[in-house]
Amino acid sequence: MNKFIITNSMINLIDFIKAANDFSCVISYDEIVRKQIIESRQILEDLVENGKIIYGVNTGMGGFVNFLVPTEHAEKLQNNLLQSVATNVGDYFDDYIVRTIMLARLISLSKGASAISIENFEVLLKMINANILPCVPTKGSLGASGDLGPLAFIALAGVGKWKAKYKGKIVPGDVALKQAGIKPMCLHYKEGLALVNGTSAMVGLATNVYNSAYNLLQYYEYISALTFEGLQATKDPLNPVVHKMKKHKGQHYFAKKVWDILCDSTLATNESDRELSIQMYNEHEVKGVKEQIEDAYSLRCTPQILGPIYDSMEFICEILQNELNSVSDNPLIITSEKRAFHNGHFHGQYISVAMDILSINLTTLSNLSDRRIDRFMDKNNSNGLPPFLCKEEQGLRMGLMGGQFMSTSITAENRALCVPLSIQTLPSTGDFQDIVSFGLIAARRCSEILNNVIYVISFEVLCACQAVEMRETNKMSYFTHALFEEIRKIVPYLKQDITINPYIEAIHKMFSDNILLNKLKRIEYERSR
Fold first, then answer.
1. Which end of the chain is less crowded, N or C, counting CB atoms within 10 A of the terminal residue's CB?
2. Is 443 left (phi over 0), alpha (psi -120 to 50) or beta?
């Protein structure tokens, strides 16, 4: 049984994702976390006893911030907050996303500045470990006072209201807690606010999207190499010696990686193989030749196109990891100062911007894949391949022509989806929330783009496999042949027209998990020894 201990140390993003996505992983926390949670709560209670006016403790919230509320109404105020802001609509988030959101919220609360009671902190912890997963609708968060709506549905399940999935069934929140032997939360002042006022929903979704995009990039290194072979592109523009002339780390990485993958390939060509004979050249005559000395940009410029994506992925990872390890609610009860600080840590602009950048990255990837697919389809640009990769019964058959309808359509859709969310602010709450981030929408939209681009890339690899089989598979590199063999387990060589939808869906599923990627990495490791 795997374990994940919440400490005061910086939590690694990948470790967090692994723990959140592992439903058997037991979450716990250390004694330092326990002490700082208790101390924060005690300081808040002391401040209230001394008559300090604190937002959400003895005041109204949002557009009612100008109301003073006696602490005798604390429980009702906090429960009213949960009921009031639980307004999201639409389909429910997948179970693993909900669990990731819950763990992200728990980590934020563990920092000892939210002043939640240790008892209610432990209820949320027990819910995660029992896999009580509240039903959280996907649409409706502003990402301004954090993700109020999504987090409110989780908190409502914690107090025994709303509904949650438990042991495969959706049941009322109180039923799920009772069946798991967990006593519901009883909220006192600030605790409802502490549970909902933060960026944990957008962080939970964004980290999963980032992780999947990162894995897809690693797949695309092998796919790019396979496409180079399928189109018999020249390897020379990948030579690391060439890329020393530019200073971008991501460009260097990608060029060397694909260069190494293709090191033993004789299907991808060398520039010397294409050298035009000097005898063909006549200084007095312009002459057309069959071969051209350079490939199109979608092949030759791949390191320069994908390099910025690799570099920005480091930036996105840093943003997500920093936000995960932050306290993101208001007000903060900072124990070293023994006072409350009103602030705007709940604002999700960092996540919104990071997800917009990732959306641009993924759309760029679909643009590149779409152009490569077009070269496979066009007999004039494929170095000797038949039109639409249709070798048998041309004219009677259409080959892979129809597949391009799908990939081009989805590429266009991704471009439309790529409009930044981080600038789409609209005021609400009586102009109290007058500039908002839409961080959760940005993450959700990025997830959709990611799903789309996997379809486009799935068709590219299908085309590449069809192409190399029309050439000589024994000339492939060791690594691309391993990928080819895995694809061939689910997609045969297509010598008759058949609906390719099941094949595309099967490849999509393959690229959506890490099984094949881990196998390719293992092969790479063994070859390097």
1. C
2. alpha
